[in-house]
Amino acid sequence: IINENIDNLYTDSDVGYKNHIDLKKIKKKNKNIKINVYEEGTGTYEKMYSSLLKNTILRLLGIATYFGASKFVDSIFLYDMEKYKSKFNYSINAVEIKSSVQKELSLNLHIYNFIFDCNVSNTKPLKEKAILYLENKNKNKNKIFESDFFKINDCDVFIKKHPATFNSSNENCNDSIIINTGIPAELAIVNLLDLYKEVTIYSFNSST
Hints:
Number of strands: 8
Mean pLDDT: 82
Strand order of the largest sheet: 1-2-3-4
Largest sheet: 4 strands, parallel
Oligomer: single chain
C-alpha cells in the first residue's frame, strides 16, 4: 500500500503504536491520500486501553487511543454518530452510515461471501437450530470449551475463532464447525440466519 498511488484508504483501526507507524509511513509516501476509518463494532465507541497512564502517554506521543483519533486520519464512518460524539472530543470529520449492517450484508451477501471466502454459506444444516460462539482472546474465558456447553444434540454448533487464539488447541471441539478468523462475525450471523430457523449467539466481550 505504501508504494501504491491511491486516493483513499479505508481501515478498521487507527489505534495503537503499530497502526500509528503504518499510517505515518503511508502518509509520508503519499501526502494527498485520504485515510478513513470505518466502524468495526462496539469497540469503535470505547477507549482501547483501560490504564489512564497508558492512555495519557500514548496521547502525548500523538498515538490514537480510540478510533478516529489518529492525526493521520481524515474521516471515520459510523453507524451511531450520537454515541461517538457523546464519548469523545468530537473534532474529526465523522460520516454517518445510513444503512444497517444487516441490511447491507443481506443485499450484497454473495459479494461479501466471495470477498471473505465465507465457508458458512456452504454449510448443509443437520439441525433446525444453530449455536454460534464468538471466541474471546482471553484464554481463561475460553475454558467454556472444556465444559458440557457444546454437548447439545438439537443444534449445529459454530465457533468463530478470535485472531489472537488462531493457534489454540480448540480447533476440533466436540465436532463443532470452525469459522475462520478472517470472516467478520456479522457476516457469519447473516449467513446462519439464512440457513437456520433459530440461531443463538454467545459472546464474551466481543466487539462485534
